[in-house]
Amino acid sequence: MVIAPHTVYIDHRSRSASITLYNPGATSVEVAISSIFAYPITDSAGQFALFTPDSLDPSMPSAADWIEAFPKRVLIAPLQRQTVRLLARPPQGLVDGEYWARLVISAKGGAAPATEADTTGISIGLTIEIRSIIPLTYRKGALKTGLSVSELRSTPAGDSLVVSARLVRQGTAAYIGTVKGTLLNPAGKAVAKFEEPIAVYYEVAPTFALGTAGLPPGSYRLQLDFLSERPDIAPELLLRAPPVRDSLEVRLP
Amino acid sequence: MPRCATFLMLAAFLLARSLAGQTQVSGVRDLAFGIVIAGVPTTVAPTDPVKSGQFYLRYVTGGRVRVRLTLPTTLNRVGGGGTMPISFRNGDAFILGTAPGSVPNPFNPGGMLNYRFTGSPDANLYLGGRVTPAAATPSGTYTAPVILTATFF
User: Fold this and answer.
1) Which of A24, A63, A188, B130 could disulfide-link A99, Cβ–Cβ 3.0 to 4.6 Å?
2) pLDDT, tens digit, for every residue of A131-153?
């Protein structure tokens, strides 16, 4: 199942958005759309995970209960697409802010064809269900975002440098942007780079990997730049924030 | 510049634009055990180019996805009257990016996989497994659901 866009934004003035689903397969799929409240956190290894509370606290900025998909269930034929409207029905008196949900888009194919029974009379056919979980953001009023970076660390690991940092969102909205990591040699020349999208809803401490294969031992400067821009999200949907840079002297063995 | 080259460049540009903001998770190939004989265990390696299950994932280069497979332990005979154990071990799944030089990233299909799309925006996930039909397994079709959950960050 192809889902576009991969990040949904709904503004309080329009209270609606849409996603397009496309079935690239050769068989029809039955699709169901639902929403949950969740936001990304990181575990002790710096890996991203979704935090999904067992019960909703009124202080949690959840939009999950008042986002509705039309249709909620649909059968999509092979090579066909379907537009799904997302309508928001926020409670009266909703205070300005950003509210979050995750769309869960489940696609069930028909039963996989059973393998040939042949003379044994035994055949096996697994049924496949694919659940894609993408973010949805509902915004009301003027919002601000920003990022603070601390505890920047690096550890050589094989032919990589494992980089970690503590990222805390500032302002009233999630920080959605891009992190660019650069390793500079003593002459100031970039000798290794990475770039990846980043989303900080409250606080995360992710790890990043920077390839260092072939680099001579010695001192380098590791530089992280956080920019509130994403090539895969329309600029008008992103909240702007001042660029943030942090750096660290590292030594490659 | 020849007109066809201009057209191809334009098509590539438009394709890249259309793919920029979407995700894709698709089943490419079912995990196929082939001929199963009662009393004889059958194993499919994730590296099997024909029988292994294959899923295709696409996001953005540098993006991260968390993959969880919900796998059965038992296959049920359609119409009732029989079951068959199915198992998945550590290393029965791996994910492989499509960028040149990508290396397989094996994982335990019973756990989670955090994957970063490095060098390209897409990857393939391969799944193997084994069935151990008892000698007295009744003939028929045996089935169970496999759920792949992909959380995009």
Assistant:
1) A63
2) 999 999 999 999 999 999 999 99
A123 contacts in chain B (CB < 8 Å): 36, 140-142
Fold of B22-152: Immunoglobulin-like (2.60.40)
At residue B30 the predicted structure's pLDDT band, cuts being 50, 70 and 90, is confident
pTM, rounded to two decimals = 0.89
Contact residues, chain B, for A47 at CB < 8 Å: 66, 114
What domains are defined for chain A?
2-140 (2.60.40.10), 145-252 (2.60.40.2360)
Cβ of A1 within 8 Å of Cβ of B144? The answer is: no
Host H or E run for residue A203: strand A203-204
Per-residue pLDDT of A5-35, as tens digits, reads 999 999 999 999 999 999 998 889 999 999 9
Q: Where along chain B do its domains lie?
A: 22-152
Contacts of the segment B104-112: beta carbons below 8 A, 24+ positions apart = B106/B46, B109/B69, B109/B71, B110/B69, B110/B71, B111/B68, B112/A49, B112/B66, B112/B67, B112/B68
pLDDT of B14 higher than 90: no
Query: Measured between beta carbons, which residues in chain B are less than 8 angstroms from residue A231?
Result: 20, 60
